Each structure stands twice: as C-alpha cells, then as structure tokens.
Amino acid sequence: MKQERVDLQKEVFNKQEYTQTINTDFTELGVTTAQDDLENQVTVEDFFTSYDELFYDIPAVGSTNSHEYLIRTSGEYVDFDVNQEEIDALRVEIATLRTENLELQQENANLLLSSSAA
C-alpha cells in the first residue's frame, strides 16, 4: 500500500483581519431583522400588481392556487352567498318577464293576423 504525504496549511487572521474578512452577522444563515421583515412584506398593492401580471398563468379551476379558489375563499370572506341569492332571484324575475313578453308578442301577432284576415 502506497502512502501519500499531505501537507496541510493553516491560515490565521489577527482579530482586525478576522472581522474584516469573516461575516459575523449571521446573514448567511437566513436570519433577518424585524426591519428587514417589514421592508420585504408584500403589500396589497404588490399582491394585485403580481395578480395582474400572473392572471393568465393562474389555472381557472383547482382546489388551491386557482381562480376558482380565489373566488370561493373571497366569496366566503365577503359573504357572497347573500349577493348570489339576490342574483338568482333577479335571474328568475328576468326569465318570468321574458316569458310574459313572449306571450304578449304572440297575442299582438294573433291580433294583427285576425284583424288583417277580417
């Protein structure tokens, strides 16, 4: 078995060189200050700017991270079901009015036909 010789070299800093060379603030470990956290916090304006930029990249449907998810969770937050009940009632009223309008148009057409036949 062949033995190899390995020379180790040790680099030593004096105290002044050490603080100038080595970062001792723990920033490399991901520790942030409260001020850093405040500065990096996403604002509502930042959110909507990002939302506008990502709008077409967001999936339409999905249990999370989708437009469907945003609608559902935001709807729950603003009690959208109350508004939905009103919307549904208005849709029923529109359908009823369309039916009545169609019946009146048919009556009008029948009256015109019967008066022109006489």
Structural domain count: 2
Query: How does the overall form come out from the CA principal axes?
Result: rod-shaped
As a percent range, the share of helical residues equals 55-70%
Distance between the termini: 125 Å
The description of the largest β-sheet is: none
Integer average pLDDT: 86
**Percentage of β-strand residues:** under 5%
| Low-pLDDT ranges | none
Topology summary:
Blueprint: H1 15-21, H2 34-40, H3 44-54, H4 67-77, H5 80-117
Word description of this protein:
- 63% of the residues lie in helices and 0% in strands.
- It is mostly helical and 118 residues long.
- The chain folds into two domains: 33-78, no CATH class; 81-118.
Task: Record keyword descriptors for this entry.
mainly alpha; rod-shaped; 118 residues; 2 domains
Could you write a compact summary of the structure shown?
This protein folds into two domains: 33-78, no CATH class; 81-118. It is 63% helix and 0% strand. It is an all-alpha fold and 118 residues long.
